Amino acid sequence: MTRGAAAGRRSAAPPAPPLCIGHRGASALAPENTLAAFETAIVDGADGLEFDVRLTRDGVPIVLHDAALDRTTSGRGAVAALDLASIRRLDAGAWFGARFRGERVPTLAETLDLARGRCAVNIELKEEGGDAVSLARAMLCDPRWPWHAAARLGAQVAAPKQYWRSQPREYKDLFENARTGQR
């Protein structure tokens, strides 16, 4: 008998298996941060999805990593300079391969609808030089996604430290209200 067992202590539980997270979806198999990449990751068994959220000019949260549209869409320039209707006309798949031609930049709501009940999500807020609190508010106050339920489903939101440092009280209140289901 070991010393810990003799003292009535329980042995440590075995470590949990590592999680498989689809970074920007299955971005090696489909264009990153698209519904095709997210669906592929889920079907292939991902425990969760990691993706980035930015605001369009008209304040709609969309899923896109870069501040500029150039690398992953048929568009040019800053995401923040275009409204949702303009971004929805862009092709976000052709750069990756012909079979993804016509893939669109998804909204946060579309991405969460796809993941709901199927996997966890880890969302990174992206808003360099912009109003990160507005992004957090637009995301957390969206009535189509109950964030208090999202917390139970494993949703996590990451905001870079500089945002928390610039307006820590407002962030803390936003996330606490979202956690408890208040808007």
Tally of alpha and pi helices = 8
Q: Largest sheet, described in full?
A: 5 strands, mixed
Total strand segments: 5
Average pLDDT confidence is 79
Give the percentage of residues in beta strands: 5-15%
Using only C-alpha atoms, the radius of gyration works out to 19 Å
Q: In CATH's first tier, which class applies?
A: Alpha Beta
Shape: globular
Helix/strand order: HEHEEHHEHHEHH
In brief:
By secondary structure, the protein is an alpha/beta fold. Helix content is 33%, strand content 13%.
Question: Can you describe this structure?
Answer:
This protein has 183 residues and is α/β, with parallel strands linked by helices. It has a single domain, classed as Alpha-Beta Barrel (TIM Barrel). Helix content is 33%, strand content 13%. The protein is built from 8 helices and 5 strands, in the order αβαββααβααβαα. Strands 1, 2, 3, 4 and 5 form a 5-stranded mixed sheet that branches. Strand 1, helix 2 and strand 2 form a beta-alpha-beta unit. Helix 2 runs parallel beside helix 4 and helix 5 runs parallel beside helix 8. The longest helix is centred in the last third of the chain and has 13 residues. It is globular.
